[in-house]
Write a sequence for this structure.
């Protein structure tokens, strides 16, 4: 706590996801994650305005990457392999204001950069180039250095809510929000 209205923080956290045996006996190894984060939380105007910021970096080792495969019986499943790793970094900010006793406005944004480590994605369920590294698959694709799936580069949300106070003492608070994100 810098003062009653400003706090800064830092954290280092780790995570682990075990490896497993897949259908057909193929195995993949564990995935570990180390996350570094620094940020600030501030309030202004007697707490009516809140401004939060966070900068983070996530370092994956053995990142588990799943590709769709078509099995010999016609069913579909996923084949999981370990990438050498993956890196994720980003910045998030939130500005929230209590405009009146009954009105609140909030804006959040996120900027994200991701990058896969060395990985050859195998799939026989797509038209991929012939796989020289593993001819048992119809195709493969070197996804080394590509962005992670489901990770937009930018996302933003605007939210407005108003509280209606009923004569019975009950309240009703509808919310309108708009969300935008880049392709993922």
């Amino acid at each position: 706590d810098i003062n009653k209205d400003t706090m800064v923080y830092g954290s280092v956290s780790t995570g682990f996801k075990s490896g497993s045996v897949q259908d057909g006996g193929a195995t993949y190894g564990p995935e570990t994650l180390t996350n570094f984060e620094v940020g600030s939380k501030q309030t202004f105007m007697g707490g009516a305005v809140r401004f939060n910021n966070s900068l983070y970096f996530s370092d994956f080792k053995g990142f588990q990457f799943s590709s769709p495969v078509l099995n010999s019986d016609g069913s579909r499943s996923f084949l999981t392999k370990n990438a050498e790793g993956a890196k994720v970094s980003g910045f998030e900010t939130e500005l929230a204001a209590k405009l009146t006793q009954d009105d609140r406005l909030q804006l959040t944004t996120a900027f994200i950069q991701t990058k896969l480590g060395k990985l050859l994605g195998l799939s026989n369920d797509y038209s991929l180039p012939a796989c020289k590294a593993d001819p048992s698959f119809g195709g493969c694709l070197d996804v080394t250095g590509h962005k992670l799936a489901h990770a937009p580069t930018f996302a933003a949300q605007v939210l407005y809510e108003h509280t209606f106070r009923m004569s019975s003492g009950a309240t009703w608070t509808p919310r309108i929000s708009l969300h935008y994100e880049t392709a993922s």
